[in-house]
Every structure is written in structure tokens, then in C-alpha cells.
Amino acid sequence: MIGIAAAWIFVLLLGGGLALDRILTNTVTTSFDDQLEYVLTAMISSAEIGPDGEVFFNRPLGDQRFLEPNSGLYWQISGAGHSDFTSRSLWDRALRIETDHSDAQPHIYNSDQFSDDELRIIEQSIYLPGSKVRWRFMVAQSRDAMDLQIRQLRQTLTYSFALLALGLIILAGLQTLYGLWPLRKVREAIQAMRTGRMDRVRDPMPIEVMPMVEELNALLEHNEKQAEEARRHAGNLAHALKTPLTVVMNSATARADDLADTVIREAAVMRRQVDHHLARARAVGRRGQALARANVWESAQAVERAVVRLYPHVRCDLDGSKTASVAIERQDLEEMLGNLVENAGKYGGGSVFVTIDPKGSADPKLVDIWIEDDGTGIPEIERTRIFDRGARLDTGKPGTGLGLAIVRDVAEIYGGLVELDESEDLGGLLVRLRLPRAG
């Protein structure tokens, strides 16, 4: 940042310095030329033609340098067929006359005709009253004074702009260090959090840094929630596996006759518990993926094909939106739909109806998925308890009572919910699964 600021300052000051140098140089040169033109005008107004046809001044020019040899200020009047009329300051020299042009207006140019002195010359050709000769009036002055003044101005500009650039670069550096100083405080806060002395960035920060600090604190809170969920899942899994392991160990210790059946039964329970907690762990891990999305119709079709093969007597119908998408990984969506549709097929009377995003949904940010069956339903008093792990109302059919618990847990992890009600069309159970809409 300091390097970019220094480069930009250099470019701006260089451009500004060159422009100012040109303006000041032109001003000095114009002032110098105005003085020469003033002398030229005075010469023309004082010039007359004598009886012998030669030009002369009816009054002397006021500048004494015209009387000092090689003073650096000269004048000369030249005409065809006449001797040059020159100032005493020229002494034994004369100004070179360019014969290839004639100037009706004042013409100013530089000349190096004197090897030891560069001249600035102004000339004009006019006809004097009483003469048919075209006289060329010339005033010349050494450029030394003008060049010295220009050099002094450039030197002053260079020093001034160099000091200005140095000051601006130092200011930019201090501003950058001051502006980025809060990041040092953030780094120190992160170090304190890493060593356990702090849990959040709590020091007040400038408004430009606060969005980053808020995002950092939100990330820390998210990670803490994930860690807490992971610890809770591990504890729940350990608790869930403890009872089946105890049953198997007791049976093995007692050398029970049904040890093989007990091991198979309890192993199935443990496998279902592991599947349940793995599903939760996968959902927690994928929850932070902002690009997760799944088409509900495609997932429902895949689940329908699997359930129909598993329960050939079940008829499963789909209706609703074919384009509705949810912000959930497809594997998690199909696991939830699979549990719900499988339960409807297992405990219903043979008809399952799935409606995707029906019209009149309560919240446009959520996609409603209705799963209805024609079974006996679930009494209203039991609809809350049925979501508990291991809770089962029909113990005559195989299962572990974890399906609805998995659906509830995964839906809540993604910010959704699941509700139970009575189906008006089929008379059985209506499950409303509401999941966040993608996009």
C-alpha cells in the first residue's frame, strides 16, 4: 500500500511539476520578451530619416547598457544600401540579418551568433516616413539573466516537490500503519483465544474492521456449536450402545441358550444407532456448505422406487412442484424422505401420497413436503413422544424407532422442522416436512 501510494504521489507530482515548470518558464520568457518589445517600440517611435537618407534617433534610448560595450543589450537598424546603425554596446560586432524573410509584425527568436553569449532577438521591418527603404529594427539581449531565473525557479520547484513528495509518502506510511494497526489487535486477540485466555474478540474496533471481527466471532461460535454437537453425539452414541453391549455381555456371561439371537438383535440395534448418529454427523458437517441444493422431485422419485421394491403391495403417488429445490445435500434429503415414506408404506394400508411444495405454503422461504398414508395414524397425544429415540407404537413390525428421530434431527440441523397431523384425504397420518428453499 505504501509503495502504491509512493508511486501515485510520484506520478502526480511529476505531472504537476512539469506543468508548473512550463507555466513559470512561459511567464518568465513572456516578461523578458515584453521588455524587448517595449525597447523595439521605443526605437521605432524615435527613428527619423536625416537629410542624407540615413536613419537617426530624435531622442536617445534610456537604458545605459546600450552605451556599454558587450553589455548584453544591443540594438541595430539595417536598410538596403545603407550602413548598419548600431548601438555602442555592439562595439565592433553586428547582428546577423536573416534575408530570407521580412517581418511586418514583431518576430522573436533565439540566436547563437555570438559564441560567448546566446541572444534573444526581436525584430520588425517597417517603412519610415520620407524613405522608400524597408528598415529592419532589431533588439537583442543576452539570455543569461532569463536562463538564470528559470534555473532558480526549477531548482526551487525541484526541492519543494521533493520535500512535498517525501512528506506525502511519510504521511501515507503513517496512515497505512495507523489504519492497519487494528489488525495487530485482532492478531493478538486470536493468539489469546488460541492460548485459552479469551473466547471472542471483544475489544472495540474501528468500523472498517468490525465486519471482519463479527464474521470471526460468528465462525468461532459456529465451530463451538459444531464441537458441542460432536461431543453430544459422541455421548449419545456411547449411551445408546451401552445398553445393547450390556445385554450381550450379560447373555455371554450367563451362557444363555439364545445368545446368538441376542447378539443378532442387539447388533442390529447398535448398527441402527450408529447409522442415526452418522446421519446427524454428516448433516452437521454439510450444514455450512452454502452451495448445497437438491431437487425434491428427483429425490422423491428415487425414494419411491426403493420403497416400492421393498414393499411391493404399496402404491406411492407423487404430486406438486417438479422444480422445487431445498438447500440440503441430496443424500440427507433422501435419507429423511426414505424414513418417512418407508414408515408410511410399512405402517399404512398400502397407499402413500407425497405432495411437494403445495400451493398456499405458510412460509415462502421453506419448501413443504407432505407424506400421507391410509393407515391408522398416530393419536395426537403420542405425536410428540414418537420423535424420541427408540419410541415405537407398533412393536409387531421390525424396527428400532429411530426413523422419525433421524428425520427430526437432520431437519433441525438444516433449519427445518417436521410436524405430524391427520390426513384429510387418506385418513391416516400426515407428516409435514418443511425444509429451507434453495436460492
From TrEMBL:
Enzyme class: transferase
Record bears the keyword Transmembrane: yes
Domain Histidine kinase: 236-439
GO molecular function terms attached to this record: kinase activity
Keywords, in A-Z order: Kinase, Membrane, Phosphoprotein, Transferase, Transmembrane, Transmembrane helix
Superkingdom: Bacteria
Keyword field contains Electron transport: no
Pfam families for this protein: 2CSK_N, HATPase_c
Record-listed E.C. numbers: 2.7.13.3
Gene3D superfamilies: 1.10.287.130, Histidine kinase-like ATPase, C-terminal domain
SUPFAM superfamilies in alphabetical order: ATPase domain of HSP90 chaperone/DNA topoisomerase II/histidine kinase, Homodimeric domain of signal transducing histidine kinase
Membrane spanning stretches: 159-181
Localization (cell): Membrane
Catalytic activity: ATP + protein L-histidine = ADP + protein N-phospho-L-histidine
Protein name: histidine kinase
Organism of derivation: Blastomonas fulva
